[in-house]
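User: I'll paste a sequence; please echo it back and then give the predicted structure.

Assistant: Echoing your sequence first, then the prediction.
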Amino acid sequence: MASESKPQEEADEDRISKLPDDVLCHILSLLVTHEAVRTTILSKKWNKFWTSLPNLEFYDKYFPTSYSWLKYECDPFMTFVDRVMLLHDSKDIRKFSLSRMHREVEFVVEDVYHIHRWIDIAIEHNIVELDLSLVDCKGMNFYLPQSLYTCTTLVVLKVESNCISYDPPITGCFPRLKVFVVSFTNPDSPDPVRRLFSCCPVLEDLAIYGYPGRDALDITISAPELKTLKIHLSCNEYYMYDPAYTFKIDAPKLENFSLKDPWFLSNYHLENRNSVVKAKIVLNDSEDYDPIDFADRTTALLGRISNVEYLSFSAAFLEDFHLSTFDTLYQLELSLGGCNNWELLIVFLKKSPNLKHLVLKNKGRLPYFELDELESNLDLMSEVQAKRVNKDRISALPDEVLYHILSFLKTEDVVMTIFLSRRWKNIWASVPSLDFCDQENPDTIPFPKFIDNVLFFRDSKDIHKFRLHSIRVEDFDRICGWLGAAIRRNVVELDLSVKYYGGDEDHQQIFKLPKSVFTCKTLRVLKLWSNFIINAPESGCFLNLKSLCVHF
């Protein structure tokens, strides 16, 4: 009996509690703070661990968010944070995260006092990373404490708010800050904002997110050690035609530059243009522009980063623009705005003599083209490629090898290869596998028309595999036609999922498999991933079928 009870005692043993205190503190530091505090109910040993946590993360979404908490006479979230901060022991606080984004009551003076005190406590405990997210319903300004600007241990600062105001000192600001992420809305204090990004002597990574307001604002970024800069702006339609920002960027070591300005209202001046190696530029998404002004400012912006080696560029409505020569451009990722902006592609090819890698994107749209337009532009692209020194080894492969490679891609991606060169114009039409899926594309895509075009322009070679997964095609007769085309091309494998609800998710319309599927003599593999009406003939059914997979 003693030997039998011993394994049971070992199984019931609390091995976690016997781990060293440092290990337990590390485990708890991976939890949100309110969950770490709950471990006090485990045993007396666990009562002290939460007071030594190096990472403190407070999120008000886990606490009552409405006026219901008023019955407690105080905000339980603010009370909880206050208690944890005041009872923290003498050990360092590496990270302090505070998110007050879901309260339905505006800030009061007492709240500001508490938050300032928490930040001061974190600074006294040698804070390394501070993540602050504050939203105030009434737009009350919350000024960061001066002690934060002069903190000698702070390395990472992330601020997201519609109510935080900045008042940095003229000198001695953020002496060790290397990563700064800030999001603001319509700042009302232009002078402090100008100083904010010009007083960080060791800053290496800066990300600015913002909503331009009614007032034009000059922002100077002067950071001698800055290597990565991200500026992502969003605009409210109410402010669409108002003046925005002017960014003056003085960063001699800047290597990575990312810009997203959907309505391109701001101006950008880079003082040290030769240092940028990698750039990502996303501009307008609207046609409500002066096209000449937009083209001129885009030309100026690209001219300031013409020494990049990698460029990702998107400007859907850019026309009649001039481009500087990109002598060092090695890789280009280009959004063509639905594959119809040929001018953008041709200009970049002509101005990038050393380009080796080209990636084309079309923002989720299926490729659409007119044959005469395709012919003329392939002539231009072939002329550009003829000037290339490096040989295109992939295009030199035998057709059968290219067919095999493309058979691993979705058909919409295969068709996109026609834009590469005249050599690729007809390759897609002989690929033995067709893969169509409308579940991964927007509702605006002319999916049935795309399939019609592919099957119409395809050559007479056999189709080995035909995959169709659709949830939006309501014309079942059209689907039968597609299957018939595949069967006439001696299809070997069919992979089908056809669902259509007609606006009512509770009443799916069931697709009836055509008789030609059952009598197809070349079919070897059949996969059905949705409900189908199956009226199989009494004889001569699936004569050569070897693999059947059915999901109901």
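The longest strand covers residues 179-185. The CA atoms of residues 299 and 323 lie 6 Å apart.
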